[in-house]
TrEMBL record:
Residues 4-234 form the ABC transporter domain. PANTHER family: ABC TRANSPORTER ATP-BINDING PROTEIN, ABC TRANSPORTER ATP-BINDING PROTEIN NATA. Coiled coil: none annotated. This is ABC transporter ATP-binding protein. GO terms for molecular function: ATP binding; ATP hydrolysis activity. Keywords: ATP-binding, Nodulation, Nucleotide-binding, Transport. Belongs to the ABC transporter superfamily. Transmembrane segments: none annotated. Gene3D superfamilies: P-loop containing nucleotide triphosphate hydrolases.
Amino acid sequence: MDAVRVENLVKEYGPIKALRGISFRIAPQILFAFLGPNGAGKTTTIRILSGLTRPTAGRAFFFDVDVFGEPVKAKRLAGLVPQTINLDLELTLYENLLIHGLLFGLSQREIRRRAEELLTFADLLPRKNHKVRTLSGGMRRRLLIIRALLHQPKILFLDEPTVGLDPHIRRRLWGLIKRIQQRGTTIFLTTHYIEEAEFLADRVAFIDRGQIVIEDTPKALIARLGEFAVDVVKEEGLETKYFRNREEAEKFALELSGQSQTITIRRVNLEDAFVYFTGRKV
């Protein structure tokens, strides 16, 4: 049984087609990354699957629960971490978790137990009774994530969870996200940080202009291009060529070495695959 199954999802805003009939499946306990430039349809997809926006057409299922036919049941299976930090800054960390738990019908005893566990899990327990406005940006993101986990969802939607954070804080959040997955949660991640998806994801889908261009594992997408890349800086811009091994890359670079061009040999990465398959930068 798929954790998430999406069939021909369409979303139109008047003449604008935000989603053009996308379909995909996510197996349980997989971290699935949705990559694309701004406006590609990433957030629209999450908003539809989390019940915040109605689709124009299409179907979606969480463990065979019809997302649009049984929305309340579906919402209990999923947790959402939005791009915008929508915590109540004048309440404490615990009070923010308490309100979320009550909205999902949990008893106060259960909320206390889960809150203690999750605050410990996210290294936030010493801040339990502090107001959220006293937290750093990284701490607020961690609180946002564990709030979405309070009702024990089987699926977690993360919409640009590390946007605007410093690199070292982002990497700390990567560790938290992987630990959540290891506990058995299926994760749907949108991001425009390519290295984030390359590090975290089991499978990746590239979306552009409301359509899924290609889907595979990060390793397989990279392997379609080759192992090494040669970047050549020309007057008209940067040109990149891909090769199966370093020997081929070095041979090509040597042939150009007398032409007064800046040449770099490096390993192929997921950003190369994205640019190659979509023709666009993230």
